[in-house]
Design brief:
Layout: H1 23-31, E1 40-44, E2 50-53, E3 95-99, H2 102-109, E4 115-118, H3 119-126, H4 135-143, H5 151-171, H6 175-195, E5 197-198, H7 201-226, H8 235-245, H9 264-270, H10 276-294, H11 296-299, E6 307-308, E7 311-313, E8 323-325, H12 337-343, E9 352-359, H13 362-371, H14 374-381, H15 386-395, H16 404-419, H17 423-430, H18 434-447, H19 449-465, E10 467-469, E11 475-477, H20 486-522, E12 528-532, E13 536-542, H21 546-558, E14 569-573
Parallel strand pairs: 3-4
Antiparallel strand pairs: 1-2, 1-3, 5-6, 7-8, 9-13, 9-14, 10-11, 12-13
The protein binds a DNA duplex (12 and 16 nucleotides) through α8, α10, β8, α16 and α17.
Amino acid sequence: MAPPAPADTEPVVKADYAQFASTAEFREYLAKLPAKEPLAIWLNLETGERETEGFGTRIASIEVSSKAGEGRAVWMDEKGEALNALAPLLADSKRQKIVHDPKLFQLLTGRAASIRHATQLYSYLLRPTTANHNFADVVMRQFSAMIGGGPGERADYLQRLAPSLEPQVQEQDLDSVYEKIDLPLAPVLAEIERTGVRVDPKELEKMSRSMEKEVRRLEKEIWKLAGSEFNVNSPTQLAEILFDKLNLQPNARRGKAKARSTAADVLEELSAQHPLPAKVIEYREIAKLKSTYVDALPKLIHPETGRLHTSFSQTGTATGRLSSSDPNLQNIPIRTELGREIRAAFVAEKGKILLSADYSQIELRIMAHFSKDPVLVEAFRNGEDIHARTAQEVFGVGPMAQNAEHRRAAKAINFGIIYGLSPFGLAQQLGIEQKEAAKFINAYFMRYRGVKEYLDGILAETRKTGVAKTLFGRIRPIPEINSPQMQLRNFAERTALNSPLQGTAADLIKLAMINIDKRLAKEKFEAKMILQVHDELLFEAPTRERAKLEKLVQEEMEGVHKLAVPIGVEIGAGPNWRDLD
DNA sequence: CTGGAAAGCGCC
DNA sequence: AAAGGGCGCTTTCCAG
């Protein structure tokens, strides 16, 4: 449905300010708008008239340009009284709201529910592998035009963008993902960002001091072992010490460029030859956690809310996952003991608890659903330990006869299957010969024939269509799948195998978030969703709501979509969010 | 002083 | 020759 071109006569100017109790409130709202970005435009479907909502910081007015490139800002009356004289709003049924960034719109106005076209999401769904979906970049790609700073011009392009992108979205059968998943998710994300997460800065400051001492101590030890002082944080300087001064020899021959790598797995090998590498591993763990979390997070606590407010990007990944930044709260430590101490500094308000809910083995379950592999499906239907089952299938050892090594290897194989494994990768992971790894992979595919057939089918399909697809139809273009360059092609093949799994998991948890958010509101919970970490949701709830919330979350996460296998959800509350696998 | 690349590593 | 998918942040190092 293409709206008429902007009229070239003097436009009708209207403001949608019905939401505001007073002019003062409206002006306060306008003051928070990002400079020069037309926040939204309303399109009158009958007349083609356009109303624009929200421009720059000082603009207290609503304006519509006459022609593309000739926009003009109209300033509000100093007292704000002019607004009261504006025409009443049109009925919503006769208008469509167009925005670029729906999450931003929700953050500023609280009214994303009225959005029909979100051009940023259109752009992302069509080209999820493109890094930027800024307004200017999207306009550039779509119209080969460089936008200036004028608000009217920007509004014009916003108006042109929607009817240009929407048919493409329909053409690619992405309209359902847009309507059912990505658009309704935007206000949910905005609310999570706005709520924030509480951390205890005192605890982190305490840790910082003790970690500082520890880092200094290790640094001195390292210098002593090296026989000279150098910057331990510099891989170049460290490589000189290790490979030139101490003459240590890495086992595995790496690629030319990586010949002098000082990465953790290399240091691990080298620690058999000299005590220094192990000290560097220890040093790095503490230094990393200190600089990235312990010292950085307190600085980002919002002065008014006292909480950390991350920013979620809904258009930043190739697979459909979210990403988190400023700070990234999707990579809070948990693996090591020190890491868990950091995580323990994330706390609930007094009288409340943190509750986390995880999808367990979600990608393997999706694999079971897609492949209908009898063994995999049976294992999940019986609620078996999936790594133990794989160990049994691949190594032929029953659960009782298995040792930790069997399960560890099986787990690596299962992960490898999801990531598109190679004998080399598995061999490196397990520290075994490539031939041995190849045998394991062969054995796996002998037992999981359905998985093998599914993966082969995906490759064939992707070669034909050039895109990977999730259960719900989200796509990821993978043109390199037919590249003559083996390296590019191999990479593309792994991507083609992984993307439907990772992307479907992302779709499922997004749907669950939308449904949970709806119910929390409808059933008047005080509990809030405060974080998403790919396959995990975190809530903060009054202690008394715990049981009800657990039930609700479990229901919605498990029932989000019918798969060939049950969807497992693990729920827990505690100081560390949750326990490790 | 700023920006970007590279190395390294935190998470799922 | 490279060799498991997806991210963001910190540090070093170097160019402008």
